[in-house]
Amino acid sequence: MGFGDGMSGRRIQVLGIPMDLGQDRRGVDMGPSAIRYARLQDVLEGLGHTVSDLGNVGVPIPEMVEAGDEENGGMPHLHSIRKVCETAASVARDVVAAGAFPIFLGGDHSVSIGTVSGVASAGRTGVVWVDAHADFNTPETSPSGNIHGMPLATLTGRGHPDLVGVGGEGASVLPEDVVMIGLRSVDREERRLLTEAGVTAYTMKEVDAYGVAGVIERAVEHLSHLDRVHLSFDLDVMDPDIAPGVGTPVRGGLTYREAHLLMELASETGKITSLDMVEVNPILDVRNGTAALAVELVASLMGQRILELPRPTNSR
Ligand SMILES: [Mn+2]
Q1: What is the whole-number distance in angstroms between the Cα of residue 65 and the centre of ligand 1?
Q2: Could you read off the pLDDT tens digit of each residue along the chain, which spans 316 residues?
Q3: Is 222 designated active site?
Q4: C-alpha of residue 253 to centroid of ligand 1, in Å
Q5: 33 within 8 A of 27, measured Cβ to Cβ
Q6: 306: Cβ–Cβ under 8 A, 6 or more apart, which residues?
Q7: How far apart (Å, rounded) are the C-alpha atoms in residues 152 and 109?
Q8: How many angstroms separate the CA atoms of 40 and 295, rounded?
Q9: Given strand 126-130, what is the order of strands in its sheet?
Q10: Which residues make Cβ contacts (< 8 Å) with residue 92, sequence separation at least 6?
Q11: 135 carries an active-site annotation
Q12: Known active-site residue 236
């Protein structure tokens, strides 16, 4: 794969999913607005892409819906989240069927139950899950019952049947087609589930030991049998010093340069076919810096390079 190949002149469709029902902190529903305000569309068009914005999926606000812990088996807002995810999955299916590259703006990470189920309808799809947390809880293992801690388990077929069934019955992705990067906060039971499932995880320890380039090299090798890979990027993977606008910050995350390198190397694989940018919470942010960072990282994935020239060679 040549320098910068694979990510030029794309037809991009943006979908906002302003969902804050998957966790307790208000504000993450404003993530799509904050990312748009940080000029997502202009930046992508500046890179030579054609961009259309599909607007937002309608999401009820918490004041309108009962948390309904009892009837939902201890999972607040289960029914509303399922409905929103079904809609997101259906839009995602249409976008990939039309040959466009979807960018999904969260919302909390429960939105990925919909987005990934939808894009996976186009054929076997790998997932790179970039996150401080594993998001691999099930209703049985989750300490909080918050659904934003369950999407990856759900997508591999583990969890509440109403959520596993989003976008079609059964698992949307295979555990062996999943690579997680940036983990540093995993619940005890969740760790056991992850190990049993056989998901590949590069924690911050591996990022420290091999560097981002070494981790991406291993991830590419691991997913080499796939042509389609969805990248799900939770802004809480970043160090909270640079990305304070997230609901569940954890110290010791990716640096600014590490995150850009990750996106640039992911771009160069030519295999990324869809993207989530989730968990931006403007209420907790400082001057929209986390949303601005999200836009910069999308740009790095979609072909922005420090130099636009061909890579220098040693031929002369
Ligand atoms: Mn997450």
Answers
A1: 23
A2: 334 456 789 999 999 999 999 999 999 999 999 999 999 999 999 999 999 999 999 999 988 887 665 567 789 999 999 999 999 999 999 999 999 999 999 999 999 999 999 999 999 999 999 999 999 999 999 989 999 999 999 999 999 999 999 999 999 999 999 999 999 999 999 999 999 999 999 999 999 999 999 999 999 999 999 999 999 999 999 999 999 999 999 999 999 999 999 999 999 999 999 999 999 999 999 999 999 999 999 999 999 988 765 555 555 4
A3: no
A4: 13
A5: no
A6: none
A7: 9
A8: 6
A9: 50-56, 11-17, 101-106, 272-278, 229-234, 126-130, 178-183, 200-203
A10: 15, 102, 104, 114, 115, 117, 118, 119, 121, 167, 274
A11: yes
A12: yes
Distance 314 CA to ligand 1 centre (A): 43
Q: Is 276 a catalytic residue?
A: no
d(CA 133, CA 143): 14
Distance of CA 11 to the CA centre of its chain: 19
Q: How far is the CA of 234 from the centre of ligand 1 (A)?
A: 5
Q: How far is the CA of 224 from the centre of ligand 1 (A)?
A: 24
Options 20, 29, 77, 133, the catalytic residue: 133
**Residue pLDDT, tens place only, 181-236:** 999 999 999 999 999 999 999 999 999 999 999 999 999 999 999 999 999 999 99
**Is residue 239 annotated as part of the catalytic site, yes or no?**
no
Is 133 marked active-site?
yes
Fold that domain 11-301 belongs to in CATH: Arginase; Chain A (3.40.800)
List the alpha helices (DSSP H) in 13-77.
Answer: 31-37, 40-46
| Catalytic residue (one of 177, 234, 268, 276) | 234
Cα 151 to ligand 1 centre (Å): 8
- In the residue annotation, 234 being an active-site residue is answered as yes
Q: Which amino acid is at 2?
A: G
Gap between the Cα atoms of 185 and 105, Å rounded: 23
What's the pTM? 0.95
